[in-house]
């Protein structure tokens, strides 16, 4: 299960991913009409942009035009420290987005020869604390099959044991060919999915295994396929959709 806590009440909660993200013109054959692609589009939860973001590139350097620091609507006092505020401590503050620092030393070193290659990368806060259950990892990725002027760098986080004391962020790589990139509050920012920590295997089928597999496919076509034309091609479109077993994603509030 994905467990989340908002940095403040104004932060949008994760939402189940959707099968379709585009408003298309009339016609047939759009990519998201393919059932497996629709299933990929809808697999996981979307984390939504908690603030408007406007990035501008000038003279080859990116900057955030509308930086914002959000204050938590809860407070924290470290154990053993006196509390004079009467509120239990002071609110935490988090930026909405920030770039890598040139000659950075923390949280990890960025060398001068590396910085130009990642200067278009920006870390955008989701303003969400996230954790998973035991042996569940959290995979961050782009929204499948959605073309945007930026891409989300993929990452897998050990969210079951790493007790992050800050909201999670995702890293965007901005398109060098754009002068301006806008992300509106509430737009899908990145995708998160739960994956099991396990040992996965791959093995080539034996000839007997493949023959059984192939025969099973021919039998299925014989039962469910419809002759589309004189060439013997089978139409399985509607049958595939009816038999497809989709995962479901919910948010309990």
Largest sheet: 5 strands, antiparallel
Structural class: alpha+beta
Write down the Rg.
Answer: 23 Å
How much strand? Answer: 25-35%
E-strand count: 17
Order of helices and strands: EEHEEEEEEHEEEEEEEHEEH
Give me the CATH fold name of the largest domain: Deoxyuridine 5'-Triphosphate Nucleotidohydrolase, Chain A
Oligomer: single chain
Written account of the structure:
- The protein is α+β, with helices and mostly antiparallel strands and 253 residues long.
- The chain has two domains: 2-196, Deoxyuridine 5'-Triphosphate Nucleotidohydrolase, Chain A (Distorted Sandwich), CATH 2.70.40.10; 201-253, no CATH class.
- The protein is built from four helices and 17 strands.
- The chain has helices spanning 35-41, 115-118, 207-224, 237-243, and strands spanning 2-6, 15-16, 45-48, 53-58, 61-64, 69-76, 90-95, 97-99, 121-132, 136-141, 150-152, 155-157, 168-174, 180-183, 188-196, 226-227, 234-235.
- The strands form five sheets. Strands 1, 8, 9, 11 and 13 form a five-stranded antiparallel sheet that branches. Strands 2-3-15-10-12 form a five-stranded antiparallel sheet, with no helix packed on it.
- The radius of gyration is 23 Å and the shape is globular.
- It starts with a strand and ends in a 10-residue tail after the last helix.
- The model has no long low-confidence stretch (mean pLDDT 91).
